[in-house]
Automatic annotation (TrEMBL):
It comes from Saccharomonospora marina XMU15. Keywords: Antibiotic resistance, ATP-binding, Cell membrane, Membrane, Nucleotide-binding, Translocase, Transport. This is ABC-type multidrug transport system, ATPase component. The keyword Cell membrane applies. One of its GO terms (cellular component) is plasma membrane. Belongs to the ABC transporter superfamily. It is found in: Cell membrane. One of its GO terms (biological process) is response to antibiotic. Residues 7-233 form the ABC transporter domain.
Length: 302
């Protein structure tokens, strides 16, 4: 294993009866990297994370976490890792500060570190508020603070922004960026593709227990070689004329707009500018979501 790898998993497999949850997964995460694991429901993301954390024993394959095997339970690793699970469990009737003090006491952490974590996650003004009275976004931030209070080297976050409103989710992005800026390695799962595209250095897209693609988000999008969509207000240009413009590959019309698909947008945009039809124009390029759907399909999974 390279000396800079914070986590290395090789040919990891896990079954629940006849269900193959993880089927030969291999990847490495460098120190200080923000690494995302993406996939539909049931893809094997959480099971992979739990084996990497040492919470589950793999059926086969190896895990090296900070140079050591997390299974059987390695007590020397516990102070060096932080884990935030999908469902957070707090001590009843304790305030935000008391929650952090209790978690910190398990690692010999003093009150100064507790206050630092409250400041980091933006809960200093809620320090005396009982956990049960915090909002969903505040509880998520408190959960992350509990995972960080002992200053771990690597942090595992399982869907930390799930069920949050857009404002709370963006607020949590800032917290995650600050954690990474402190040199921590972050490994997390999410269903929000826009989030992963903004935050992650690299992502692995999983489905049916296997990794289908793994790279930097921008490189995955570029390699998709998808068409650019130029969207005009309906009536700005006749569909027949739009289809004859240089660079136009395909034209679709709905009740609100006309969309021109192209793999060579420059001459198309120049032609539209010459016709004075740039008002209200939108240009949509491929995103990580397009890569995800291309690899995993569009069928809904509960």
């Amino acid at each position: 294993m390279p000396p800079t790898a914070a986590l290395a998993v090789s040919d990891l497999r896990m079954c629940y009866g006849d269900l193959v949850a993880v089927d030969g997964v291999s990847f490495e995460v460098d120190e200080g990297e923000f690494f995302g694991i993406l996939g539909p429901n049931g893809a094997g993301k959480t099971t992979t994370l739990e084996m990497a954390e040492g919470l589950r024993e793999p059926d086969s394959g190896t895990v090296r976490l900070l140079g050591r095997s997390p299974w059987p339970r390695d007590l020397t690793l516990l102070p060096r890792i932080g884990v935030q699970l999908q469902a957070s469990a707090f001590f009843e009737k304790l305030t935000a500060r008391e929650q952090l003090e209790t978690f910190g006491a398990l690692y010999g952490v003093g009150p100064g570190r507790v206050q630092e974590m409250l400041d980091l996650v933006g809960l200093a003004d809620k320090a005396g508020t009982p956990e049960a009275k915090l909002s969903g976004g505040q509880r998520q931030r408190l959960s992350i603070a509990c995972a960080l209070v002992h200053d771990p080297d690597i942090v595992f976050l399982d869907e930390p922004t799930a069920a949050l409103d857009p404002q709370a989710r963006r607020n949590l992005w800032d917290v995650l960026r600050e954690i990474r800026a402190r040199g921590k390695t972050i490994i997390y799962t999410t269903h929000y593709l826009d989030e992963a595209e903004v935050l992650c250095d690299r992502v692995a897209i999983m489905d049916h227990g296997r990794i289908l693609a793994m790279d930097a988000p921008a490189r995955l999008v570029r390699d998709l070689d998808a068409a650019t969509h130029v969207i005009l207000e309906l009536g700005a240009l006749p569909a027949s004329e739009a289809g004859s413009l240089p660079g136009a590959d395909h034209v679709t019309v709905d009740e609100l707009s006309l969309t021109i698909s192209t793999r060579d947008p420059a001459p198309l945009l120049s032609a539209l500018a010459e016709r004075g039809t740039l008002g209200g124009l939108q240009v949509r390029t491929a995103t990580l979501e397009d890569v995800f759907l291309e690899l995993t399909g569009r069928e809904y999974r509960a």
